[in-house]
Amino acid sequence: MSELEPKRSDAIEKAAAQSVPASGQEASPFLKQLKGFWVTFSTMFKKPLVIEYPEVKPETQPRFHGRHQLNRYEDGLEKCIGCELCAWACPADAIYVEGENNSERNQISPGERHAKVYQINYLRCIFCGLCIEACPTRALTMTNEYEIADDKREKLIWEKEDLLAPLRQGMLMPPHPMYPGADHHSYYRGEIKEAHPSQNQNSQVNK
Ligand code: SF4
Ligand code: SF4
Description:
- This protein is α+β, with helices and mostly antiparallel strands.
- It has seven helices and five strands; from the N terminus they run H-H-E-H-E-E-H-E-E-H-H-H.
- The protein has helices at residues 10-17, 29-44, 85-89, 130-134, 160-163, 184-188, 201-206; strands at 68-70, 95-101, 113-121, 140-142, 157-158.
- It is elongated.
- The N and C termini lie far apart (99 Å).
- One iron/sulfur cluster (SF4) binds at residues 89-90, 92, 94-95, 120, 125-131.
């Protein structure tokens, strides 16, 4: 057994014996304390970093990964085409998408398909951003909002309604037809700037 014990070489023994301060003298206890208190003293004059959250909300960096958003085109149609690429890219299996065909009476997004069901499970999401990299239409992006805590597990599974961007000026609530004379390529190229009066399906129905 003794053969297995590590042996201290003479060189190590010698170095250990010589490990005294270079001056040959230990610093006095008072100086040691002064050195320690210097850290406290110098910090007293620095600007405090404490933020009175939640009354004061700290600003995030512009590219902070907060909760997701499903975006719309300028006429209100949804950018999501229900392709599920975001779900496949997600390493945490946090996204669930069910696609559905668009129809003449139910045009939700330009082109063939839209997301009938879209869920993000924030109990799983690690905010890595791989899903937004995978999205071919920039339908899915991340906002700077970080206040998503809740008191029930089921409330942390966000549905499409929770994730969809609100309607802005010039947008119409889908379903409605695509912009007259436009196809999905026109939308992808950013040629649609606002809704056309003829896209208002409700007004067409009421006529
Ligand atoms: S941010 Fe990452 S973990 Fe969260 S849904 Fe997207 S891919 Fe999944
Ligand atoms: S968010 Fe993007 S990647 Fe995900 S289903 Fe919609 S279009 Fe496809």
